[in-house]
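The records we work with from here on pair a chain with its fold. Taken together, the tokens spell out the fold as the letters spell out the chain. The record below shows the convention in full.
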Amino acid sequence: MKTRDCAALGLATVILLAGCGGHEHPMEDFTSRVQTVDAATMRTWIDEGRDFTIVDVRSEGEYDSDGHAPGSELHPWSIYNRDAERNRVFIEEMTTLFPPDTTLVLVCSHGMRASQATAALQEQAGFTSVYVFPGGFEGHHMQGYPSGDGWKAAGLPLEDW
């Protein structure tokens, strides 16, 4: 490998590692700490008219460009606490808008942010009926997070975007 190639590889490694800094729990297993609600249960809840709120924790760009569940509320969560202020505001928003016994279903892109936000709501704000939709909006199967095929693949309702 030429010196110039090694330098470029070294710079890429530094950039990659810098992007991972600040994670409080980068590979922590949230599965045992959160409740999940699967697609069949969501269909039942919708059909029965059960009282629940879908909280989408993705970014505004993801919410707008990738679609979202009808009636969902956007309240972004910063994965791995990269933006601690954003997450503090999220907890503040949730505790202002909802009593801690409100049934909430959190959805993100793949399930990681929703799992982290759910654990935070339970542990920091005392929420008792908060669920993660496994696989998130797009679907995901990463170890340590609820796996599932995602909201879209499950054929659950989508808001036109």
About this structure: The beta strands are 35-36, 53-56, 73-74, 104-107, 130-132. The chain has a mean pLDDT of 80. The domain at 25-153 is CATH 3.40.250.10 (Oxidized Rhodanese; domain 1). The longest helix spans residues 3-19.
